[in-house]
Amino acid sequence: MKIVNPVRVRKGMKVADLVSEMAASGVMGAGKIAKAVDIMEAMIRDKGCKVFLGMAGAMVPGGMKEIVIDMLRHHYVDVFVTTGANLTHDMVEALGHSHYQGDAHADDEALNKKGIVRMYDSYMPNKAYEDLEDFFEKHFPELQRASDVREFLWKLGSLVPKGKDSLLRTCYEEKIPIFCPAISDSGIGLMIWGQLAKGKKIDVGMFNDLKEILDIAWTAKQAGVIYLGGGVPKNYIQQSMQFSPKASIYGVQITMDRPEPGGSSGALLKEGISWGKMHPNAHFVDVVSDVTIALPLIYGALKDRLK
Amino acid sequence: MKIVNPVRVRKGMKVADLVSEMAASGVMGAGKIAKAVDIMEAMIRDKGCKVFLGMAGAMVPGGMKEIVIDMLRHHYVDVFVTTGANLTHDMVEALGHSHYQGDAHADDEALNKKGIVRMYDSYMPNKAYEDLEDFFEKHFPELQRASDVREFLWKLGSLVPKGKDSLLRTCYEEKIPIFCPAISDSGIGLMIWGQLAKGKKIDVGMFNDLKEILDIAWTAKQAGVIYLGGGVPKNYIQQSMQFSPKASIYGVQITMDRPEPGGSSGALLKEGISWGKMHPNAHFVDVVSDVTIALPLIYGALKDRLK
Amino acid sequence: MKIVNPVRVRKGMKVADLVSEMAASGVMGAGKIAKAVDIMEAMIRDKGCKVFLGMAGAMVPGGMKEIVIDMLRHHYVDVFVTTGANLTHDMVEALGHSHYQGDAHADDEALNKKGIVRMYDSYMPNKAYEDLEDFFEKHFPELQRASDVREFLWKLGSLVPKGKDSLLRTCYEEKIPIFCPAISDSGIGLMIWGQLAKGKKIDVGMFNDLKEILDIAWTAKQAGVIYLGGGVPKNYIQQSMQFSPKASIYGVQITMDRPEPGGSSGALLKEGISWGKMHPNAHFVDVVSDVTIALPLIYGALKDRLK
Amino acid sequence: MKIVNPVRVRKGMKVADLVSEMAASGVMGAGKIAKAVDIMEAMIRDKGCKVFLGMAGAMVPGGMKEIVIDMLRHHYVDVFVTTGANLTHDMVEALGHSHYQGDAHADDEALNKKGIVRMYDSYMPNKAYEDLEDFFEKHFPELQRASDVREFLWKLGSLVPKGKDSLLRTCYEEKIPIFCPAISDSGIGLMIWGQLAKGKKIDVGMFNDLKEILDIAWTAKQAGVIYLGGGVPKNYIQQSMQFSPKASIYGVQITMDRPEPGGSSGALLKEGISWGKMHPNAHFVDVVSDVTIALPLIYGALKDRLK
């Protein structure tokens, strides 16, 4: 058995060294952070391993966009699944708007009158939607012939202004497949509805990109999963893992959701073994943390270790 | 100010009387349960009010199906939005299979070998999927021409064996619009993929039923929302509320998710006021509870009050 | 394996019948509620079993006083351990004051100016403390010679006005040993300090009543534990269980605290097996719920079953 | 309004720079971490400010001992309040034993047979208690005449082997008042009971050190509070703040406990304003995190800023 070596903090300490201290401690949340770094390093270094990243929750309004873009740019991630909300907020920023540091206990009626919408303590001016509308009005002809959501999203990424930091743009440029099974449940969905309301048509089918993600899973020699939050992104990846020859053999989950209510979002990764989504001998860890705390810490250490 | 009258429990007490005691106490979780009953009663009694029910999490494996069916049968609910997983589990039961009382700390590898999948402490035999496959193989011609998910789900409901308690069947029979924006992210999705893999085609479009839910919201004199868990079902209803003339004026949310990480699932209903999803003067309550505890309690009291 | 029979709710349903439905469902939170009733019934019916009840959190301001008093009056509980805060609030009510239904999002500065203190959404007028001061000024001579906290608390219970519903009074009248290891950390502690500041002395020793609770544990043929919240009350009982010949063989815990941070409050009962606090074959359940929701529900069913 | 600048992570990044990125993001958990560093820096730099540190939960078994010792050695902290369990584990390590990295899902019966006790995923060999017994047997004469817990703990600290990293030893050497209102609820309490069972006597009074902590609060020009977890340590400091002329004007709380059940452990710091425990204009933040994740991160940045 390894000793719990208490975490020692030094002046001028690097993130990677702090995580090494957490590894030496090896227990509770700190131990899980250190384990997450190890497992992410292993899955990224494993040449035959396809890494699936699921991202739910207010990650773009919560300031996590650049870390994920960095992961995509470096091809640490092979498949990206996220929510329509995150892609909407990504577009909002790509079109030149910003999110603002707000107050979780604000007077929401006053915010509403000022045209500000709130996601916990992150604000967005409502007028961002006007630019979104113009964008979709202008580009609808290029979007309407996409046959599935994956294709739709790459097309969208190609249309986002170049040079802007954007998840959509990055996936397009790096040719990383991006999925969003509930895209209609988002500002982007509403924009498309606005076009359909004018009598236009769109081809995007509901079930068509399932084949694509399942094929990637099916042909992967090894698979690894990283979940930032739960929701549809996690579940969509999990179900594809049932079709991966070895299921996932690496897994990192970061969420505040509890397992006891029984839903997929809070389910421990271990549960996936019964489904054949996770290999019985897989290396995995469930980090119980706000993603905006754990991810920068984990990624700060990971960057030092990779190349 | 009202006094906190401690909850008094008597022998042979009815659920409705217990909730009255909770109302007299009026604070903490008990007070919120009582408030939820009041608000649900009000929204159901309000003739001009359209009630939108969102349901996420393992509600069918968690034994909540009959309560929701009862709500649908009595038309306490006008619009139903749920996850593909719940509809898959609903079909599994409608086709004659069951979920089983299991162990949250089970040996998942052993379960896997026995062909049992686990959702926390609820089990399902994997062979249920075989019957699902046969069902979709047989009925695909009737399903493939649905133009949107709402239509697809009613069609599915019409095909489910009559006389079985089923969410899908009930929505079909009672003509209650049912939405599932991420239907491809579920066993049902996989069944459709199985058909597409054989070269068949399906028409179901991604964005097509947005018009329907937004029209219902738009034409509602009043709107009320009930959220069992968060996820896409909650968010899909929430975004439609922005288009309802008065936003929602009643709201009940039951979830264990926390607000602090910033995601939609755990967001307090109050946040919706900034978005125009919730009316500033709305009656609403956030119940922090496992749905399988709070819902039976709330519904037990509600049944007594409604005619 | 038992089937998950979905919970069915009927008009005019009794609490006990609702819990029977939860038992038939048998999974998630509902299943745990039903199991808690079974285990509490078993430990109360078991003639040789000493039942230890630990209560932490804002249970008196949260309206749970009468249920606990009912448990004490019926001698369902043999040993009671709680926090100084709960006993202070119990005294406040026994002296004729009330708690009030408030607002968890209140303007705390405004409350402070009005002389109202807040516990989440339960309010207490500050002037209650004045009566407490008078009480302790008057009765100090009777209290100061208590040699340990248990004796101090029975003495305090004897001085509380008769006929008032009070935890302290009930323990005194029913001769139920009551422990409060951190009594100095409470309004009662401050009242004693107020007396000491006037140069008075008090004999109450820190370690003296340990012998009493350990003797009860040691001589119990069987032991059962019920934890409403965690904190010192849970831990104080847990440590005594190490000295009970069979450890506890029944256990019910109700808390919202999570196990992952590693503290005693959120620790699963199972962990106690490693310590010898819980018997390896014990019947126990961890209910993840707000106590003010779960306890009335559990106790409503339990009352019907007992006698 | 300040823009949410997404967190950017660089190779070789220092902890302090990562926290600066979190500050630039400024929202969700990351924003709170950054705010916690600012507030802790401010309270430590404020010459007239007395800093009260409360620590609950399995912090010593969880590897947080050295960070707290570092804070004590540098006199960043003026008053320390903790649990008996943490002090017991501190003594265990000071006497040469270790905690070990274990498994939260271990077979607890097997652990029990091996003489290993478990705190989540941290293990301790039971035989550590034998050395504790010898220690208390040997040193009881020096301990028994302490009149209050604070004095008892300094005496204990003086007896702990020199040169060992120990919270108790550090408080003694640095003359930092250390309080533990529920000391009888711990392994140390059991050791004392073991001595009393042999007919020995001890003078330590229950209420005697209240005067000391209240005097420190009363005479403080300014006060700041830091809570690692809740429980008695938090509450004991909070009640002393009512006696500080300006209440606390700085506050940092790190806990996973939720506010909704109403207990003190999960209560937001803001609630303290109603009680006069927190100044209405105080700088404070509630960090929702496992302490073992947040504290090293916060302290890593703080060390860089101080001196």
Q: How would you characterize the overall build of this protein?
A:
The structure is a homotetramer of 307-residue chains. With 307 residues, chain A is of the alpha/beta class. Chain A has one domain: 3-Layer(aba) Sandwich (Deoxyhypusine Synthase), CATH 3.40.910.10. The first copy, chain A, has 13 helices and nine strands. A six-stranded parallel beta sheet of chain A has the order 6-2-1-7-8-9, sandwiched between helices. Chain A has a three-stranded antiparallel beta sheet with strand order 3-5-4. The two termini of chain A are 31 Å apart. Chains in contact: A-B, A-C, A-D, B-C, B-D, C-D. Chains A and B meet through helix 5, strand 4, helix 9, helix 10 and helix 11 of A and helix 5, strand 4, helix 9, helix 10 and helix 11 of B.
For the largest beta-sheet of chain A, the strand count, sense and barrel status come to: 6 strands, parallel
- How many angstroms separate the termini of chain A? 31 Å
Strand content of chain A: 15-25%
Q: Structurally, how many domains make up the residues of chain A?
A: 1
- Please tell me what the overall shape of chain A is: globular
Chain pair sharing the greatest interface: A-B, 73 and 73 residues
* Helix-and-strand structural type of chain A: alpha/beta
Helix percentage of chain A: 40-55%
